[in-house]
Amino acid sequence: MKRVVLNRKYSLFVGNARGGRTAAILASLTSTCRRHEIDPQIYFTQLLTNLPLVAERDLVDSLPDRCTRDHLARLTNQQASTEAAS
Questions:
Q1: Residue 43 CB neighbours (<10 A)
Q2: What's the rounded Cα separation, in Å, for the pair 20 and 37?
Q3: Distance between CA 57 and CA 3 in Å, rounded?
C-alpha cells in the first residue's frame, strides 16, 4: 500500500503525458518483478544489456514472469545434465 501512496505523490511531478506513461510502465514492471521475487535493479540491468541482441518477436520473453520460467527451466536442465554426468 505504501508504494501506491508514494507513486501517487511522485506522479504529480511527471511533467507530461509521455512521462506519466513511462512512469506507469516502469512501476508496473518493478511491481511484477517484486511479485515474482526478482530484484528489479538486476532485472533492468540484464534487460538493458540484452535488449540490443533480442529480436522484436522475442521481446515478450523478456518480461519478468517469462524470465523466471525460463530461468527455472535452465536451472532444471543444468541440474539434470549434472546428475546424468555423475
A1: 21
A2: 26
A3: 32
User: Rounded CA gap, 62 and 80, in Å?
Assistant: 24
Backbone angles phi, psi at 12, to 5 degrees: -65, -20
- Rounded to whole angstroms, the Cα distance separating 31 from 7 reads 12
So where are the chain's domains? 2-85
- Which residue shows C-alpha cell 522475442? 58
DSSP label of 86: -
What distance in Å separates the CA atoms of residue 25 and residue 70, rounded to the nearest whole number?
22
pLDDT in tens, 11-25: 666 777 787 788 888
- The pTM for the full model equals 0.65
What is the percent of the chain where pLDDT is above 70?
Answer: 74
Distance CA 21, CA 57 (A): 23
Mean pLDDT on 19-43: 86
